[in-house]
Amino acid sequence: MDNTTPWDENTDAAEDSAEPAHEGAAPSSQGYIAVVSQWRKDGLAVVPIRYAAGVASAGGEPVVVSTFDAPDHDDEEIEVVASVSPHDSSVLDGAVGLVLPGGGDIDPSWYGATPHPRTRNVSHRRDQFEHTLLEDALAKDMPVLAICHGMQMLNVHLGGTLIQNLGDNPRNLSHDEDLPRADPVHGIRIKADSRLAGIFGAPSAEVNSHHHQGLDRVAGPLEEVAWADDGVLEAVESDEHSWVIGVQWHPEMMAASDAGEMRLFKSFVQATRSYERGESVERASA
């Protein structure tokens, strides 16, 4: 998660109150995977190219959906639907899956807390948009892959809380390692018989790390399924949905060189195909 700019209540309130340029925009196709955009401090969307590439490399069709105005971007193969109202879930009407990417911190007011001095890059508007999309996707039992900030939003949406700064505990590893990179930073232990263990085909893995927050109280529907060497929670799965996985690391940066991370994207895309056909989602065995 990017933590370079302090949380600013006044700036965020102005950004949240701004109305979108239009509402009701829709992607041009059906059967796509919606990838939520990130946010720039100038109010424009950030096209999450790496996340979209992970989906595409696994055989899915990514469409970026954003509640912010679209910036200029060079990749014409990535469709961007921008300026969507944060309360409008209609961008999921033709979708078969939802990806919540990494990014800034979540507004602590969503889980009844006051901001920590290191809580940064907050966008209440993005939070609201992701709440809106999650409510719709989970109600439909649509597959959801939630990454870093996305895993934290999944937990908050379902009623959980966050640790706002892991660095306050001196026993924790340094989880906030520069920008997300392909190089592993620490190991994780994966719960046996979990969906994640079946995907990775092993009880452990090496992952990268770029986050300074983590899950505190885990929401009831979520099962803890992976932990870092210091005990920090690294992955969750929903017990109440066919395929909902949250991971705290950045598989989109490792998928090109790590078979386990690519299998995570492939499992997600396969689940979206089963969802599109109205079939049950099979669980891989470790």
Would you mind describing this structure in some detail?
- With 286 residues, the protein is of the alpha/beta class.
- It has one domain (9-277): Rossmann fold.
- 25% of the residues lie in helices and 20% in strands.
- It contains 7 helices and 14 strands.
- It has helices at residues 9-17, 49-57, 124-139, 149-157, 195-200, 251-254, 259-277, and strands at residues 32-36, 38-39, 45-46, 62-65, 79-81, 95-100, 144-147, 162-163, 186-190, 204-207, 214-215, 222-228, 233-238, 244-247.
- A 10-stranded mixed β-sheet has the order 5-4-1-6-7-14-13-12-9-10, sandwiched between helices.
- The longest helix has 19 residues, at 259-277.
- The chain is globular and about 45 Å long.
- The protein starts with 8 loop residues before the first helix and ends in a 9-residue tail after the last helix.
Short synopsis of the structure:
This protein has helices spanning 9-17, 49-57, 124-139, 149-157, 195-200, 251-254, 259-277, and strands at 32-36, 38-39, 45-46, 62-65, 79-81, 95-100, 144-147, 162-163, 186-190, 204-207, 214-215, 222-228, 233-238, 244-247. By secondary structure, it is of the alpha/beta class. Helix 3 (124-139) links the parallel strand 6 and strand 7.
